[in-house]
Amino acid sequence: MAQTVAPEFNLDELLQQAAREKDIDVDRWISALEDAMASAAKKQHRIKAPVRAVLDRATGKFEAFIVKQVVEEVEDPLAEWTVEEAQDEKPGAEAGDEILIGISTEGLGRIAAQSAKQVLYQRVREAEREKVYNEFIDRAGEVVNGTVKRFERGEIIVDLGRTEAVVPRSEQSRHERYSQGERIRAVIIEVHKQPKGPQIVLSRTDPRLLVKLFEMEVPEIFDGTVQIKAAVRAPGERAKVAVFSRERDVDPVGACVGMKGSRVQSIIRELRGEKIDIIEHSDDLVTFAQSALAPARITRVSVTHQGEVPHLDVIVEDEQLSLAIGKRGQNVRLAAELLHAKIDIKSETDVKDEVADALAKMLQTAMAEQSATEEPIRFDITSAPGVGAKSAGALTEAGYDDLEKLRSADPEELEVIEGVGPKTARAILEWATQFEDEPAAAEAGADEDPFAGAAEPEAEAAVDDGGFMAALSKALEEAEGPEDEATAGEPASEPEDGESELDSGTGENSAESKEQ
User: Fold this and answer.
1) Angle at CA 96, nearest 5°, toward 90 and 98?
2) What is the distance between the alpha carbons of residues 434 and 238, in angstroms, rounded to a whole number?
3) How far is CA 332 from CA 232, 296, 322, 325, 326, in A?
4) 3-state secondary structure of 56
5) 227 and 127: one domain?
6) Is 243 in contact with 277 (CB distance < 8 Å)?
7) Tell me, what CATH number does 220's domain have?
8) Are residues 331 and 400 located together in one domain of the fold?
9) Which of 1, 225, 278, 413 maximizes the CB count within 10 A of its CB?
């Protein structure tokens, strides 16, 4: 019989081929194989000390060694020797030397081979993940196209060709639905080295996706003529983009909208119907705020700086209030994010009510302060009927030393005071109600007859205060004859129908008036 000859085994060619297929450097493959062989030898010989394996690429054979470090003081007995212990293996050894003790790699069993396979797979996997990390770490913020491969616990796994990416549930728009095999466009937001799951994290909700889509659709943004200053989104519902033109002849809003809205409509379709407000950026915060709150018309904007974030008080007409706030506060929330400010929106009616309330409070405060500064009405409680010195002291101790308190008291409250009975309580309250301030009473009506003592200076002062003129006016109104036609030195007019001045009841007052 003819003898079958096994083909020659060339390890170096196999390593070169694997390196080309996985796009991993050959040296990384050799390092992975050496680690795998060291693990197998360690498992086979049940060695706890560190083991190192070396591949001879010319012959394709492995050599394994136990590694010992020579040190002055041993901290790890499995990996270190003292200088005295090393002399038996290597005479003349010194601290810092490394001693290699050869072990056999022949006849490695199934368990050792399985251990080598696991180590090799792990090293290759680490090399692949490091390569993906190095390739995509500088592409964060870039838009990539992929295919929906599968779904895992609500996450979308996307096939990017050479690797996989993931769109977490938190980065998905709740208005979008994808099926397996469908094309998807998303922005890279993170690249990590974690051992589990895809390393590339994509997003469909990040504002950078909106910015990149505008760069792809608007040539003026791509070449830098028009700049996007800021962009905010409520994914799937509404977005606001602030744009600025570096050239006066270029309208930034018109450039982004395009002819009949062709440019912005393509972006809206990509975002599954998300409404986009394109706003011209302004360095003036008030002007920028009026544009950011579109489509609502703003009446007035006032800015106050409180800390690092400015505060805007926006006033709109009553019919524009709901439009300015937006659905579930969406419009004002996006505007606040775009402006990096806090915004309070009020209608004109609310502002008027607040101003009226503030004025009322100021008036109440002023009246309270005035009443606090006014002198209390002076009175002597002993002049009340039925109140003696002892009862007056009891009333004062009970807090009834103020006339207003006394007037607002109830008879039952006064009856509990020592020396005050029901009749006395009612008499006191009646007296307090009719009581007048003594100085004011003296000024207002010291003389009931305004004509008495008119020649005296004190009486003239009272007349100047209005007492005389009021009395005179009343007397003239009651008179039936002509008013004030008779003057000093001239005869009075004849009374009609033969009625004398004395019969009319005004003769004496008229005579006195003439004498004055």
Assistant:
1) 50
2) 73
3) 12, 10, 10, 5, 7
4) strand
5) no
6) no
7) 3.30.300.20
8) no
9) 278
Alpha-carbon distance of 333 to 329, in angstroms, equals 6
| Residues 151 and 262 grouped into a single domain | yes
Q: Is residue 466 part of a domain?
A: no
pLDDT digits (tens, 9 = 90+) for 167-184: 999 999 988 899 999 999
Q: DSSP characters for 349-410?
A: HHHHHHHHHHHHHHHHHHHHHHHHHSPPPP--GGGSTT--HHHHHHHHHTT--SHHHHHT--
Is 315 inside any structural domain? yes
The residues pairing with 65 across neighbouring beta strands, listed in sequence order, are 52, 102
pTM: 0.58
Q: Smallest Cα–Cα separation from 341: which of 304, 312, 298?
A: 312
Q: Is 385:391 a contact under the CB 8 Å cutoff? A: no
The answer to whether 270 and 259 have CB atoms below 8 angstroms apart is no
Residues 50, 67 contacting (CB under 8 angstroms): yes
What range defines the domain where residue 271 resides? 139-275
Q: What is the CATH number of the domain that holds 18?
A: 3.30.1480.10
Question: Both 332 and 426 in a single domain?
Answer: no
- Same domain? For 252 and 299 the reply is no
pLDDT digits (tens, 9 = 90+) for 445-460: 444 444 444 444 443 3
Whole-angstrom distance, CA of residue 494 vs CA of residue 512? 18
Tokens of 238: 């509404």
Residue 500 domain flag: no
